[in-house]
Amino acid sequence: MATLQRLGSPVNGNGSGAATGDHNTPPTSLPPTPPPTLALAPSSSTDPRSHPPDLALLFDLIPLPQLILSPSCAITRASARFLADWAVTVDQCVGRDLLSFLQAHLQPLGDPTGHIAASIDDAISSRAVRTTKAIYRHTSSWIARIIPVFKEDELLAIVTEWRESPVALADQELFRPGLSNDEAFRILVQAVKDYAIFLLDTNGRIATWNTGAELLKGYKRDEIIGQHFSVFYGKEDLDIGKPGMELEICLREGRVEDEGWRYKKDGTRFWANVIITAVYKDGVHVGFGKVTRDLSERKSAESRLIRAYEESEKLKSDFLANMSHEIRTPMHGILSACSLLIDTPLSERQRDIVNIMEESGQVLFQVINDILDYSKLASGSFSIKSDIVGVSSTVASVVRSVQPTLPPAVHFELFLSPELPKSVQGDPLRYRQILQNIISNAAKFTEKGSIRVRATVQEEDEVSYLILTEVTDTGIGILEHATALLFTPFTQYDITTTKQYKGTGLGLSIARSLAELMEGRIGYRPNPDRHGSIFWFTARFKKIKNLEQIQDWRQRGFNPDGSPLEVPSAGALVRASELAASASTKTLLLVEDNVINQKVMLGLLRSLGFKNTALASNGAEAVNMVCGKPAAYDLVLMDINMPILDGHEAAARIREHGIRVPIVAMTAYALKGDRERCLEHGMDDYIPKPVDKQNLIKTLARWLLETRDYRLPPIDVSADNSVVPASDKVQPNVEVTDKQIGKDGDTPVIR
Amino acid sequence: MPDFGDHVDNTIFSQILEMDESEADRDFSGPLVLNFFDQAIETFQKMEEALAEKDLDTLSGLGHFLKGSSATLGFNKIRDSCQVIQQYGHQLTVDGSTEPDENVCLQKITDALKAVKVDTKELDKAMKKFFEVTE
């Protein structure tokens, strides 16, 4: 390529472009033809008077560093300014490939050629001007504008225009393409919208604020910078000095994480997860970095989950409770009816059948109880009651109850340590239940030998005892591989097919749960002396604080050995309902002088179904009423101590009139002789005062349902007019109905 | 069951409560207890009169009378004091042996009457609270 020359002559006025020429060409008036490689657009000068300068000259004089490239990116021309700025000569650049030229003349840091080439390609393919990224040369960075020159479809040249910008000293270390580190991080932090990321100074005052912080907390940057970060905390946290504590911990540990309520500018609160990190520069503490996340969504999801769970738990335990009642009630009915049926005259075949019914019923009942217990235990809604427990008496009682089921070749041995406390605090029913389970198991699986039950105090402290109970049998034992599953629910170990172990397989599992609820454990080990098993369990019982608690148990309805005080036996339930059925047809006479007692008795009788009860306030009135209407009353309830005429006298007088109405004395007398006196005076029966409901039911049933009506003609027509009535003379209830201690010792009815 | 301490035998009293329509509507036990306290106050008055006249017989009868109703409701403390009055009214000690000295009897009765009035007042207060009766 010819080098450019300065032309001194003025521009030709012909309007043609700048002429080029070389030394050897004399100045002619030939119109200058543009060199073939230079395809410049026609002069853009709008001044018709200006003479278009020599293009080559123009190009040279342009005060911009410029390079013209061939379509293949070889440098074809360099402006003077370029040569000057880059301190290169024409030979060094013209003719050379641009990229190799650049590589040679640039600071060898990074490879700029990649992006320059990309920019050029981009410019060519899009036929548009492109700007490259910066490349670094000495103390400056250069960017280039890539200008492709097309004539129709042909790429004629690429013009590159270079621009310099001084690089700050500080960035010198970061001669990397793109952003500097700081700038990059700043943009990062600023742009993040989901997290509040900001800096605090060493005192906790807010120094920076990002978009996320603004969105999350509601404060704008200028509102919040300089304020203390405790402005986000709620009253409770401020009261306990939480912000300060957090900074303290942060300094100590380097970081602190917290979850809690934070408050926005508008006062609403959100559940935040906050991480504070201590920031150091050159070893000096300069502040804190804080990142806050909004976890409100998660928290509300959590509480929704918990609510749903609690609701389902409640449904479960309601279901259990209801089912429990619904199932047990008819079971009671079946068992009651069965036991009554057994008491009636039956043929042998019938008796066999009924026995089967009862046995199956008992087993079913046990199974149901097991399942309900197990469900309750599994759902965690089982609670241990706190009552009085008599350890020794419970053990003895259970042993007694299992005794009848023992095979003849097996006997019980009972060892009760003298150190066992007389009474302790615990759940008597559940303690009994575990004992019952283990001991009856032993009985089931022992053919001959012994079952030894031993209760001792394993541990004692100031407030409680840990009682150990061991049951050692000489039975069939348990195979080693089965021991692991012993206390697992729904597993039963049955060594032979002939022995049918009735049950759910839940007994031991329930026993274990109960023992654990009583802060104890349960376990098994083989009998070392002989073939057999040792089942043991521990349970913790609190010591009794004072005597009052012992007296309390009387009022709770249970004996310390776990057996209920009043057994509304199967018979009683049926009696009560039968009585109620016929009560509406019966007329009673109540003889009682104290108004309060009258009211109570009437209420009691009403509750049993007796709607027509006549009232007399003293003995004389009673005699008048009964003798006046001899057949009016089905039964007379007579108080003894009354003014005017007492009960004894009244009864005697009624009898003198030959009226055989059943008279039941209500007496407060505790002395034996007094009861007998009642009978002597013609009373048929007596119940102690204050009157107990169950007792009343039993007595009324006896005289109203089981006794032949006194008004009916005598059955045995005997010659002698014996005063002894044909109605059955029933032996009265001789038991000590100290209703608290229930031994339902019925004497058999004499018929 | 509320705790009336040793004033009330809970087993007996709860039987009374069982006859109520419901726990919210104590239409049976409420008026009954109210009646009892009325009866008690009346009886105490009569006892004071009989005491002034040193009428042991009447005192015994009155004691027996109130003993009956208090026992029925399970108000054991009141019952026991009435038992004392009943016995000493017959010139007997509480375990049945004779007490010939009238003055001793009268003194015992006086003491018992004093005690039972205090106990009754206490129990009345507790009962009113239980039945949520405003004075």
UniProtKB/TrEMBL annotation, chain A:
4-aspartylphosphate carried by residues: D639
Coiled-coil features, chain-numbered ranges: none
The entry's keywords: Phosphoprotein, Two-component regulatory system
PROSITE patterns associated with the record: HIS_KIN, PAC, PAS, RESPONSE_REGULATORY
Region feature (Disordered): 1-49, 724-751
SUPFAM superfamilies, per the entry: ATPase domain of HSP90 chaperone/DNA topoisomerase II/histidine kinase, CheY-like, Homodimeric domain of signal transducing histidine kinase, PYP-like sensor domain (PAS domain)
One MF annotation (Gene Ontology) recorded for this entry: phosphorelay sensor kinase activity
Domain PAC: from-to ranges: 256-307
Name of the protein this chain belongs to: Two-component system protein A
Automatic annotation (TrEMBL), chain B:
Molecular-function annotations in GO: histidine phosphotransfer kinase activity; protein histidine kinase binding
Gene Ontology CC entries for this record: cytoplasm; nucleus
Alphabetical list of InterPro entries matching this protein: AHP1-5/YPD1 (IPR045871), HPT_dom_sf (IPR036641), Sig_transdc_His_kin_Hpt_dom (IPR008207)
Keyword Cell inner membrane assigned: no
SUPFAM superfamilies: Histidine-containing phosphotransfer domain, HPT domain (SSF47226)
Keywords for the protein's UniProt record, in alphabetical order: Kinase, Phosphoprotein, Transferase
Residues modified as Phosphohistidine: H64
Protein name (database record): Signal transduction histidine kinase
Lineage: Eukaryota, Fungi, Dikarya, Ascomycota, Pezizomycotina
